[in-house]
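Table S7 (text form). Paired inputs.
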Amino acid sequence: MKAVLQTEFGDSGVLKYTDVEIPKIGKKEVLIKVAYTSVNYADIKKRTGNKGKGNFPLILGLDVAGTIEEVSADSSFSKGDRVIAFPKGGTYAEFGVANEQLVFKIPDNLSFEQAAAMPTVSILSYILFYEIGQVKKADTIVIHSAAGGVGSMLVQLAKLAGVQKVIGTVGNLKKENYVKRLGVDVVCTYETFAEEVLKQTNNLGANVIFDSVAGEVTSRSLECLALYGTLVQFGNSSGKAGTLKTSDVHSSCRNVKGFSLGTTRKHDPARLAPVAEKVLELFATNKITLPIERIFDLSDAVQAHRLIESRNYEGKILIKI
């Protein structure tokens, strides 16, 4: 099968379009013929070596939309089922193998393109919003990187839930119109958001802040987090860890919660099925959509990575297999 292989850490040039063997399935696994995979910032971190060690050669990619090609004995799936999944061993390839717990059937009216845009960012966002952040209607919330995949989802979930005020940050104000169309009420840059949040809340601060950037953004977030507020930390796209003092937390009754979809896929995969069902319903009924910036061919994965790294995009970037 065709795949994009990586044998060393480095820039996008280390990605090689080549031939590899089709993987074999084991017990409680399925083989999926991939239609589309999404490109996530986690792929960039893994490619460059900023996300753990590399077991080379490796194939990048977290999620797919495609069709079941082969099942193991007593499977609840059948050949031909349309699914989204989190395969093991990467997704920049024509076929992928996934544990059945990480495979979810999709409605007939949901296109593979839209389905491929959603697995990682939509399931992650739903858990962040409802389970970790526990956002209420009366809250003022801040969504960092509001133009990204998770940000785009969080904004729409907030509007569906009737949240009082949604403040979004962007790295470039050229993305202001995009995030406002999604439902952001107030748009800020990373340099100005703390002051703007305090201004918008009469110096009370935001009730929930979603932070995937970390670094200095984490410190600034604590400057504008309300008493009893929650900072939800789920990434560090800045490449730097955020820091805080315990005195920033206990005396103000604020809390910091962390979440990783990767950790949950590995250690508590059963937690994802009910969430997948809910988000698939939201997409199938057009209550939520994820704008797709561009679709690349598998042989053009290098260009897809360069676009992600430029940060000059809005919504999701897909690879068509």
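Next pair, protein 2 of 2.
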Amino acid sequence: MAQFINVQKKGSDILVYCSAGLLLIFFLCGIFAPWIAPYDLEQMDLASRLAMPFSSFAHILGTDELGRDVFSRLVYSLRLSFLLAIAGTVLGAIIGTSLGFLAARFGGLVDDTLNAAVDFTASLPFIILALTILAFLGTNVTVIVVIMAVYGWDRYARLTRNLARSAYTEGYANALEGLGIPTWRIAIKHILPNIASALVVNMTLNFPGMILLETSLSFLGVGVQPPMSSLGTMLGFGRDYLTTAWWIAVIPGVVIVLATLSMSILGDFVQQKLEPQGR
């Protein structure tokens, strides 16, 4: 039994290392896209359109219907998709954490309003809410980031509210207020460090959902718009060529699956290491 547990633990560690390494490669490809990509994002080579992967050294992953290099578009798409996911995750965490602190500190009407907003957000199919926001505000990168922040804020708000209320229940936050320390300083200097590990776990677990949300919106044609490109955009354009040029959609689809799966595995690992029950 002990040997089986050790083998299982080693296998789990290898899986975590592989996931972390794969995510690092994706991040580096996105960061250094202008130097890694052999062609510009919209550079066309009509003489080589719909070239299969590995059919020539000029286009390793083939070309699309307009003769654009798939590898070049892939690294640029990784850059934008990960940037949007990170921005949406961070903004959602800031908004949710701030509202959670306010609800825990003031309670009453503020707390009831926050709970109602959280329940309202959780009760709606979010893709319908996202499409409604895009219909009113239009499609651009800023609106997409706001939608992604709205997608995750309720989780951080609920978590922060519950943990911050414990701080006020235990009495040390009230004692600090009695010493004249401002509420915002108590939240940032004393309460936030105690709940930071739970927030980090929540961010890592929420990140794959952000990538899938951006992919879904772009696949439906209401997300990232040309001339910009994301993984969802590549997937959406490639669906019309699945029978004739499968690589246009399959390659970004595989990258999406690997990125979200790797982040989920890494999120589970972080949860085991940071949360008290994991320790």
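DSSP finds ten helices and no strands in the chain.
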